[in-house]
Fold:
Amino acid sequence: MIGLIGRKVGMTQIHGEKGEVLPVTVIEAGPCTVTEVRTAERNGYVSVQLGFGTNKEIRFKKPVLGQFQKRNLPPSRHLREFRVDEGHGYEIGKQIDATLFEKGEHVDVAGVTRGRGFQGVVKRYGFAAGHASHGPTAGKQPGSIGSSAYPSRVIKGKRLPGRMGGVNLKAKNLRVVDVNPELNVLLILGAVPGPTNGLVYVTKRTGAR
Structure:
């Protein structure tokens, strides 16, 4: 399903139709340029490649820059393929903006969560720390993690300290509260993955509501 590449601007609050306060995420969605159209005859599948953002030409490698020069398109900083159906009607060079979405429809938003580095079990999984008085020495240690005699190893999948965040995550079935076509801005109810100015991918919801 076709979607848009966007940038997470931040979060704010607006008032709904009944006066309730709605927490919304502001996403700068597009404009995106169709940079490639893949067909079943040539590529074995049907998709549309979109480009978002720009940068100085000197910052692009020559093979990448040549792909845009061959099609007389400005170089795009971010590229993403979206699977589409046959007869979609998208052509190279076409601009797609926030008007792709309508107020009230549901979307999926994918992004990369904020990286938090190497963390312990208390912050990573919400473990309870040991008592801080009367001499205990456990602190924030995870405690016993495996058997000694059998199986004499740590079972896979144990919740232990490690790298936290920085993973691909998708928030599903979020409602579009408002669309501003002049600013190419979407207001989406709730939070979406990623930090401020992080790259996000907004696609139309195809599953059940």
Q: What stands out?
A: The chain has three helices and twelve strands. The two ends are 16 Å apart (CA to CA). The first strand starts at residue 3 and ends at 15. The mean pLDDT is 88.
